[in-house]
Structures are given as C-alpha cells and as structure tokens.
C-alpha cells in the first residue's frame, strides 16, 4: 500500500512508503534520545552516585533498558548497556510533605508493554513516616531500599522473580478498571 496525498487518512503526504525510525521501545522512545545522567544544582549540596543493574526473574542482566529518575531537584535519563548496568549522578533529594527523600524510577525495555515505576529510598534516612512505605509490607519496603557503598548508593531493579522490586501503578496508562 502506498501512502499518498489523495489518501485522507494519510499521516505523511507522499507517493512512497515512509520507513519508521529504528527503535527499541516504540515510535517515541528511541536509542537516539538524549542521555542526561546528571542532575545539576547550584545550592552547594554534594552530588551522589547511584549505580545498579536491571535484572530479569532469573537474575540475568536486561540490557538496553531506559531508566529515568525524577526528584524535586531535576531528572535523569540513561540506558543500560548489554550488562544491565546503569549509573546516574544527582543530589540526595530533600524530604517533601509526607515523603522521605526518594528517587522515582521509570523503566522501559523492549520486552515490556508499559513502563515499570518504582521508588528508590535511602537507608540512611528516616523512612518510617513516608506515606507510601507505611502501606507496604516489610518485604516490599526492602526491595525499594538502596544500599550504601563507598562510591554512593547501589540499587538493583529486579523485574520479576523471587527478588522482584515493588512496582507502583501508573495512573492513566490503562483503563480505570485495571
């Protein structure tokens, strides 16, 4: 079928087929997306490094995963390599009303039908009054805690399996009955 200007449903008026760009995640998320692996602030706070791996249910690395983190101070976007490893540099977020300092992570791979959303919490903060964490079991909470390392923090995301990370719903992606 040829897409033409005479076709009222045509998205691109031309007399030739138009190839879609090569993608991993879909027509809007591509390998060419800009990487922004550092949050810059001018308030004098020390930067921290968060590293980790994205793993499947068997504990194997999941390569080429898009990872976005967001916090009040800014956001990052990075991609894992074939080894499933990521690294971001940011500042430790400040607490917000009802919430302990945390990073919200949005992950997407070619194997997922929708993004996975979770939060990274810091083990050296008072997380006991966080309005999300108080609703979770101790086992679920544990999957959202980073580990302190000499270089910063480490946070592995397990997409499935025995050590599966606790994931949050993503309002608006699916119907209200889901």
The CATH architecture of the domain at 47-158: Sandwich
Question: What is the assigned CATH homologous superfamily of the domain at 47-158?
Answer: Aromatic compound dioxygenase
Query: Count of DSSP E strands?
Result: 9
> Distance N terminus to C terminus?
37 Å
Strand content: 25-35%
H-E order = EEEEEEHEEE
CATH topology of the domain at 47-158: Protocatechuate 3,4-Dioxygenase, subunit A
Average pLDDT reading: 80
User: Oligomerization state of this entry?
Assistant: single chain
User: What ranges have pLDDT less than 50 throughout 5 or more consecutive residues?
Assistant: 1-14, 18-30, 172-178
Biggest β-sheet description: 5 strands, mixed
Shape: globular
The number of helices is: 1
Describe the structure.
By secondary structure, the chain is an all-beta fold. Strands 1, 4, 7, 8 and 9 form a 5-stranded mixed beta sheet that branches. Strand 7 and strand 8 form a beta hairpin.
Produce a short descriptive summary.
The chain has one helix at residues 138-142, and strands at 47-55, 66-71, 74-79, 85-91, 102-108, 116-121, 147-149, 152-154, 157-158. The protein has a domain at 47-158: Aromatic compound dioxygenase (Protocatechuate 3,4-Dioxygenase, subunit A).
């Amino acid at each position: 079928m040829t897409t033409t200007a005479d076709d009222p449903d045509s998205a691109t008026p031309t007399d030739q087929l138009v190839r879609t760009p090569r993608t991993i995640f879909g027509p809007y998320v591509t390998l060419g997306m800009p990487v922004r692996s550092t949050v810059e602030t001018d308030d004098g706070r020390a930067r921290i490094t968060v590293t980790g791996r994205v793993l499947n249910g068997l504990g194997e690395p999941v390569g080429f995963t898009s990872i976005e983190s967001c916090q009040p101070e800014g956001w990052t976007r990075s991609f894992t390599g074939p080894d499933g490893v990521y690294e971001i540099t940011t500042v430790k977020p400040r607490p917000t009303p009802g919430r302990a300092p945390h990073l919200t992570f949005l992950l997407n791979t070619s194997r997922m039908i929708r993004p996975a959303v979770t939060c990274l919490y810091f083990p050296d903060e008072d997380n006991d009054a966080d309005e999300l964490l108080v609703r979770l079991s101790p086992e679920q909470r544990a999957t959202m805690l980073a580990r302190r390392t000499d270089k910063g923090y480490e946070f592995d995301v397990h997409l499935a399996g025995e050590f599966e990370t606790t994931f949050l719903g993503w309002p608006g992606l699916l119907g209200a009955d889901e």
